[in-house]
Structures are given as C-alpha cells and as structure tokens.
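Lab meeting, item 3. Inverse folding demo.
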C-alpha cells in the first residue's frame, strides 16, 4: 500500500518547489488560489505524515551540522492558515531546533529602532530553523495600505513623506537585509499563502459560527478585509521587488489548507536537501576515545 501510493504520487510529475517559485514578473490575478494538483485530500494527508518524518530527519541533520540556518517567512491575509500550517508542517520536529516568532504591532521599544531591528533579533542561529509568522514585510504591506502607521517611527513628519522613493528605499533595505543573511549562512524561504476573498469570508464566518473558534475572530478583521484588493496590489509589488535567487518567494494556493501544507513542507524539504548538510566527522583520535569510553562502560 505504501509503495503503491508513493509510486502514484511520483507519477503525478508535480514539483511544488518549481511550480510555485516566482520566476520573472509575478501577477497576483494570474495566481491560482484553488489549485490542488491531482491528489485527493486523503492522499495529501497521508503524504504530509510521511514528509513530516523526512523533515524531522533533515532538521536533526541541520542541528548536527551547526554551520547553517534556515529562515522560513510566512505571509498571508487573515484566515489564510498560517498558524495551522506551522502546526502541521513543523509539529514533528525537535522543538530545541526550531523557533517561531509572531510579529504583532511594534512596541514602543521596537519603534525606537529601525524597522528591521526586531526582525534581526529573531533570525535563527546556526543549526536552527526559524519561522517568521508575519515578518519584516508588514512594513511594505499593512504599512503601505495604512501609511500613517509609519509615523510611529518618529522619523517622518507627514504621510506626504511616504512617496515612491520612500517605498523604493524600503524594498532596497529588505533586499539588503536578506542578502546579508544569506551571505552569512542563513538560507531563506519566503511563502505567501494565496487565499481567495471568498474563502477568507467562509473561514471568518466559521470562526463566528464555531464556538471553539470564536477566540480567533476579531472585529478588526472586517475593515482590513474591505481593503483586500489594496493588499493584493501591495503583495504583488513586494514579491516582484524582493523575489531574488538568494531569497525567493513561493506563492502557494491556499484555499485548501491540506494542499498548502503539503506544498509548503515539500518546498522546505527540497531546500534543506540542497543545503548539503553533513553530520560532523570524528577524527581518528576521537574515534579511539569513543572506544575507550565504551570499554570503561562495559567493564562497570
């Protein structure tokens, strides 16, 4: 049964890393939100379980190697499934080798620094996987839809300061930040969960109708939903400005959560496999020391 399923999956000729990688100019209107490939939900769930084990093994190897780190940036509209994707994709890895940072509205301390400061503090150390649940991209997404938010940085006098040059400088700062990280041992994967406005509506209603989900709903989600099209324009621009070979964007159809999880975990696995991770090799002296230690233990 196991091998039959794997063979069937391989015959689908689906490469999520290649399918959803942004190459050339990105158009949000042409990007599917509903694509699910040729898998059924049951097959997708089964595949996810198998890939979780592979991810666990690669994360252990990354930790043992200790010379590189992986940063996974997750961006999406409200109710797109970021939290549940983190749970289902990374639920099987060793918590000691993985960190999740959820970026909310900046604190007064964070506003007292440049907009990238708090994100640099959360970058994973070597041997670790770091996950940004929302990220430095909020500065060119929500802060572009609501430019008045930038005034809290106390560097600018008026919203009139936020002209085209301002935004070009922000994109350049982000590109330079990510380039610096990748030049110093951090591999970056950026994932946009592309959910449709109709699916978002359905999920928000579910949060109201299902008592156990009530805590997830915020009335503040509705004014932001009314700006959905503006957010899509900002995502399109941000992705086009910052999807580079050293820090690529992947746009994953997210109307089906199970499919988004399978696509995401396969992209992450593909990247880890290309990082050329190695378990540390012991010197001959260390190997002899191990054998001596074994003899001592066995003689007790």
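The presenter then showed the designed sequence:
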């Amino acid at each position: 049964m196991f091998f039959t399923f794997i063979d069937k999956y391989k015959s689908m000729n689906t490469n999520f890393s290649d399918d959803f990688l942004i190459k050339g100019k990105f158009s949000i209107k042409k990007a599917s939100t509903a694509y699910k490939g040729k898998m059924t939900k049951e097959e997708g769930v089964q595949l996810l379980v198998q890939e979780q084990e592979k991810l666990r093994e690669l994360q252990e190897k990354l930790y043992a190697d200790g010379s590189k780190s992986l940063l996974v940036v997750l961006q999406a509209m409200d109710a797109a499934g970021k939290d549940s994707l983190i749970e289902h994709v990374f639920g099987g890895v060793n918590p000691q080798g993985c960190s999740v940072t959820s970026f909310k509205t900046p604190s007064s301390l964070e506003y007292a620094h440049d907009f990238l400061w708090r994100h640099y503090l959360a970058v994973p150390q070597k041997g670790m996987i770091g996950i940004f649940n929302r990220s430095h991209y909020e500065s060119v997404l929500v802060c572009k839809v609501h430019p008045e938010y930038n005034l809290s940085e106390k560097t600018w006098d008026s919203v009139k300061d936020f002209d085209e040059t301002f935004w070009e400088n922000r994109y350049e700062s982000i590109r330079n930040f990510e380039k610096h990280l990748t030049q110093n041992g951090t591999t970056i994967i950026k994932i946009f969960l592309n959910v449709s406005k109709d699916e978002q509506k359905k999920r928000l209603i579910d949060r109201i109708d299902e008592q156990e989900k009530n805590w997830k709903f915020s009335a503040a989600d509705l004014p932001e939903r009314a700006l959905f099209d503006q957010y899509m324009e900002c995502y399109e621009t941000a992705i086009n400005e910052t999807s580079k070979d050293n820090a690529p964007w992947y746009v994953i159809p997210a109307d089906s959560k199970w499919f988004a999880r399978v696509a995401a975990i396969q992209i992450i696995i593909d990247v880890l496999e290309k990082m050329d991770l190695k378990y540390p090799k012991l010197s001959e002296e260390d190997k002899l020391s191990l054998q001596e230690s074994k003899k001592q233990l066995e003689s007790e």
